[in-house]
């Protein structure tokens, strides 16, 4: 299963060296090294990404038209600090909300806050703060470069400053289906629009990409449904959506529900209600593992995505069908998706 090593290495390189309108600046990592372990590489990133068309061809085409990624209000996706380390044996490195745990140890935020207490319980290693990694693991951590935390703020102000240090904005004109005669890159298609006028704004919290140095070994996942490579990519991320608008023209959700002619406005995604808020600082979260794998039921090999865990609360204050007025408001609490899947061709 050597293919994953190449693909995950390429992915890490692409994440570090964003090619589109990006400004990279190396930073002094010595101060970080005193909080975690061995010093590594830090990169400060500012970028805008614009893609005119993404075309997936089977026999006919699925098109994503005019995708733009930046910050809120057509600004850059900036104030991003990436730290990159190749871990030694049991090395302690920054992960998740470990920086907030360190701030609590310094007295900058209140350790009695349930979220802070959870971060301390997870990441406080005594003289060091973070998570322990295996020898040869590649660890990429993302958080705000200038996070606004300082001694003149209250604890709540410092937490808000940290969790809102990195803002993002994503827009997509249209996701559509078109026939096999479509000429790639020829402009707007005349097929069926699935989604249109998607606009998302929000904040990106601590995000980790970890490539595990698992060699050529394999394991069976907990539910027994697939065998996977011990060399894998792990993703953990927190985020908040403060404003999402979309026209749901013709598309299925979870392959069951079709909400044609649905218009959503001012949607918010977070984790401030329900039973699973502790340790998330009000932010939605997603974690997943990606690697080469095969289904134990048919032994077909493919791309395995497993231990997927998505947790959020969703506020939909404007739900409209067609040109009629909004039908009212919808709120979802403790919306959780857990899944394992193998992707392959047929």
Give me the secondary-structure topology.
Layout: H1 3-16, E1 23-26, H2 30-35, E2 41-47, E3 49-57, E4 61-70, E5 77-86, E6 91-93, H3 98-105, H4 114-123, E7 124-125, E8 128-129, E9 131-133, E10 138-144, H5 155-163, E11 167-178, E12 192-211, E13 218-220, E14 226-229, E15 233-248, E16 252-253, E17 257-258, E18 262-270, E19 284-295, E20 301-321, E21 328-343
Antiparallel strand pairs: 1-2, 2-5, 3-4, 4-11, 5-10, 6-9, 7-8, 10-12, 11-12, 12-15, 13-14, 14-19, 15-18, 15-19, 16-17, 18-20, 19-20, 20-21
Domain DUF6160: 1-88
Protein name: DUF6160 domain-containing protein
InterPro entries: DUF6160 (IPR046158)
List keywords for this structure.
single chain, 346 residues, 15-stranded antiparallel sheet, 5 helices, 21 strands, 50% strand, globular, disordered N terminus
The percent of residues in helical segments reads 10-25%
> How are helices and strands ordered from N to C?
HEHEEEEEHHEEEEHEEEEEEEEEEE
**Domains counted in the coordinates: how many?**
1
What ranges have pLDDT less than 50 throughout 5 or more consecutive residues? 1-32
Morphology:
globular
- Count every beta strand, where a strand is a DSSP E run of 2 or more residues: 21
Largest sheet: 15 strands, antiparallel
What is the structural class? Answer: mainly beta
How far do the termini sit from each other?
A: 21 Å
Domain DUF6160: 1-88
InterPro entries: DUF6160
Protein name: DUF6160 domain-containing protein
Organism: Oleiphilus messinensis
């Amino acid at each position: 299963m050597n293919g994953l090593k190449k693909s995950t290495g390429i992915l890490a390189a692409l994440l570090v060296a964003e090619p589109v309108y990006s400004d990279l600046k190396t930073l002094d990592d010595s101060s970080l090294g005193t909080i975690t372990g061995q010093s590594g590489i830090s990169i400060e990133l500012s970028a805008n990404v614009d893609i005119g068309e993404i075309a997936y061809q089977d026999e006919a085409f699925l098109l994503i038209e005019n995708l733009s990624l930046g910050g809120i209000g057509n600004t850059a996706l900036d104030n991003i600090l990436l730290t990159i380390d190749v871990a030694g044996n049991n090395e302690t490195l920054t992960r998740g909300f470990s920086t907030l745990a360190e701030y609590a140890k310094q007295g900058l935020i209140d350790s009695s806050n349930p979220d802070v207490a959870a971060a301390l319980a997870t990441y406080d290693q005594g003289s060091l703060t973070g998570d322990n990694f295996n020898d040869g693991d590649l660890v990429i951590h993302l958080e705000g470069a200038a996070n606004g935390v300082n001694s003149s703020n209250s604890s709540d102000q410092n937490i808000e400053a940290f969790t809102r240090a990195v803002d993002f904005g994503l827009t997509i004109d249209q996701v559509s289906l078109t026939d096999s005669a479509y000429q790639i890159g020829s402009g707007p298609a005349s097929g069926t629009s699935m989604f249109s006028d998607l606009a998302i704004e929000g904040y990106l919290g601590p995000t980790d990409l970890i490539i595990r140095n698992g060699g050529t070994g394999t394991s069976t996942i907990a539910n027994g449904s697939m065998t996977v490579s011990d060399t894998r990519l792990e993703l953990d991320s927190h985020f908040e959506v403060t404003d999402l608008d979309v026209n749901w023209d013709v598309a299925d959700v979870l392959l069951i529900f079709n909400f044609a002619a649905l218009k959503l406005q001012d949607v918010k995604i977070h984790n401030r209600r329900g039973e699973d808020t502790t340790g998330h600082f009000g932010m939605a979260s997603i974690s997943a593992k990606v690697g080469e794998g095969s289904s134990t039921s048919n032994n077909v090999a493919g791309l395995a995505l497993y231990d997927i865990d998505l947790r959020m609360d969703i506020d939909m204050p404007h739900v409209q069908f067609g040109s009629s007025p909004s039908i009212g408001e919808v709120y979802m609490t403790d919306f959780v998706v857990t899944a394992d899947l193998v992707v392959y061709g047929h």
